[in-house]
Amino acid sequence: MSKWLPFVSSVREADGKQMSVGKEYRATCELPILGELGMSYRVVEYAPQRRVAVESESWLRPRLELRFEPGDSQCRMHVLVSFRRRSYLFQYTLSPVLHFVSNQQLQRSLFLLRMVFPQ
Question: Which SUPFAM superfamilies does the record match to this protein (predicted)?
Answer without folding.
Answer: Bet v1-like (SSF55961)
